[in-house]
Amino acid sequence: MLNVKNDFFLNSVGELISATSLQKEHTILIVDDEINNLQLLKRTFRNKYHILTASNGLEGLEVLKNNINDISIIVSDHKMPIMEGTKFLEEANLIAPDVIKILLTGFSDIEIITDAVNKCNLFQYMLKPFNPDELQEVVKTGVDKFDLVSSKSLILKDLKELFYKTIKSIASALDAKDPYTHGHSMRVTLYSIILAKELNVPEHDLELIETAGLLHDIGKIAIPESILCKPGKLDDNEYAIMKSHPANSERLIASIKKLHEVSPGVKHHHERWDGKGYPDGLKGEDIPYSARIIAIADTYDAMTSTRSYRKALDHDIAINEISKCAGTQFDPVMAQKFVEIESIIKSAKDYPEEYYLKYSTLYKEIID
After folding, report:
1. 113-127 pLDDT tens trace
2. Cα-flanking dihedrals φ and ψ of residue 54, to 5°?
3. Residue 27 belongs to what domain range?
4. For 81-105, what is each residue's pLDDT tens digit?
5. Catalytic hit among 177, 220, 267, 349
6. Hey, CA dihedral for 320, 323, 329, 331, is it positive or negative?
7. Own/partner pairs for 157-160, CB < 8 Å, 24+ apart?
8. Are 108 and 208 within one domain?
9. pTM greater than 0.70 (yes/no)
10. Helix, strand or coil for residue 51?
11. Exposure string (b/e) for 38-55, b if CB count within 10 Å is 16 or more?
12. Active-site residue 220, yes or no?
């Protein structure tokens, strides 16, 4: 599995800011109605940041207004009396649009998540219970973004680095929902860009395919873990819920301008060449090019990874299955190319870190 620390891929944006003497002490506003959660969050951040707290949304807005020139980050719970977290952050965005906003929620409801992304200028959401170290990393990245925007000295490389880290963070958070699929998004991305390069896909499209690969399953954030991790066969109702994830994914990224071109590959990676896939039953070349590539990579990784309901299949068995499904499940040209480069795919499966550095377009753009 691909388990590479952030500093293995890139230096933090914060180091770039420090080098230009732009770093300053940051203030975090924490909003939560439960005292134990407030104390936990204060302990998590007290050694690095100045902390302000509020016990509900209305109080949080007052604190924000009174400290508008000091607050860099808002960390808010969602389920609170008086004013829910999404409404609070929506109001906070009107007061301080540049302040970084992070939502903590115990609910993987697609409507809540979509509402937060669309209305609150949300930087990140995290499912509860959260890992304090992961939350610190998200806040650190948010602080880096705040400094970059405030400094008004952004350069293209910094923006791409931040975008890359954010996309990677989202993919990692999703994979963490199910221990059996840990690293799945990154591996699917790796196999997709290898296949795309072998198909001589243009450089711009390589970046889109890589981003789509990282986000292809983001809609699963709204699928109950009882279904995601079920050890046996899904019943008809459970399968219908599982099949909703590509459309969920499209809804989540629809409002993000930079991801408009990525949407087709995300939404349609479960379509089939013979028209028997979902969500729209597209057939043949009506299926977006990027989705056809991701479909093969996704299937290969699903077969060669251990899941809750079965052990991983051998590489050769998976390759043979992809070959058999050329022209029915998969684009026949793409499937044939995948089979032809099976030795590269096998090596990438065995050494994902090395191969990701070699093939990634997004990573190369931020280090060049």
Report:
1. 776 777 788 888 888
2. -150, 150
3. 23-152
4. 889 898 999 999 999 998 999 999 8
5. 220
6. positive
7. 157/365, 157/366, 157/368, 158/13, 158/16, 160/362, 160/365, 160/366
8. no
9. no
10. strand
11. bebbbebbeeebebbbbb
12. yes
